[in-house]
Structures are given as structure tokens and as C-alpha cells.
Write a structure and sequence with these properties.
Blueprint: E1 3-7, E2 10-13, E3 18-25, E4 30-39, E5 46-51, E6 57-59, E7 67-72, E8 77-82, E9 91-100, E10 108-111, E11 115-120
Parallel strand pairs: 2-11
Antiparallel strand pairs: 1-3, 3-8, 4-5, 4-9, 5-6, 7-8, 9-10, 9-11
């Protein structure tokens, strides 16, 4: 089974920075789109940023100019660089990857275990 292992979460003060990493493992024919979602306490999970296999980018308006998603295809790793963090950025961040496990697989989504990000005032 494909697994997505996240790292890089933690506690920071407002204005600080963190970088999240997501490393897929397991049997994969191809990695398609990858994304980061956030779930704040008591709220629904929402899409924060995504990057396609071709490099097309999406950012939630509230993180534009502060967050950067990037992808290292050689390492099969996606990153989320988070700068100028604010308390409203607090939540559990989940990596998501669309994976083709075989040559004829159109793609199946997998989720990371979640990384807690807490931003203090």
C-alpha cells in the first residue's frame, strides 16, 4: 500500500516559519497531482495548495504570498514552505497525493497522517 509520511510540523510564534515535507513510499507507477489540506479545530478540511505533475499551482487566497508548494520529482517529495505564520494558520495539515499504482490506473488519492501546526500569538 502507498503511504505518505509527513514531517516538519510544530509550534512557532506568529511571524515564524515552518516547512512541511511529504514523502510517498510503496509501489507506485506514477505520481500525479499533490496537495496540502488543512483542518482547523471544529472546521472542515480545506485545500491550501496543490501542484500538478506539470507544475500547475493553486493557492488558497489567505496563504498567497506566504506559502509556497514545491515538488522534487527525483525524490518523490512535496514541500510546503510556510512563512509569516499567523494564529489562524493553526491546524492539522494533511498531504494528499494522486497516485497511479499501475500503468493503467487513472489515479487513486492517498492521505498523509497529518502534521500539527500551532502558531502562538
Amino acid at each position: 500500500q502507498v503511504q505518505l509520511v509527513e514531517s516538519g510540523g510544530g509550534l512557532v510564534q506568529a511571524g515564524g516559519s515552518l516547512r512541511l515535507s511529504c514523502v510517498p513510499s510503496g509501489s507506485m507507477h506514477a505520481l500525479n497531482a499533490m496537495a496540502w489540506y488543512r483542518q482547523a479545530p471544529g472546521m472542515a478540511r480545506e485545500l491550501i495548495a496543490s501542484i500538478s505533475s506539470g507544475g500547475s499551482l493553486y493557492y488558497l487566497d489567505s496563504v498567497k504570498g506566504r506559502f509556497t508548494i514545491s515538488r522534487d520529482n527525483a525524490k518523490n517529495t512535496v514541500y510546503l514552505q510556510m512563512n509569516s505564520l499567523q494564529p489562524e494558520d493553526t491546524g492539522v495539515y494533511y498531504c494528499n497525493a494522486d497516485v497511479s499504482q499501475t500503468y493503467d490506473d487513472p489515479g487513486t488519492m492517498f492521505w498523509g497522517q497529518g502534521a500539527q501546526v500551532t502558531v502562538s500569538s
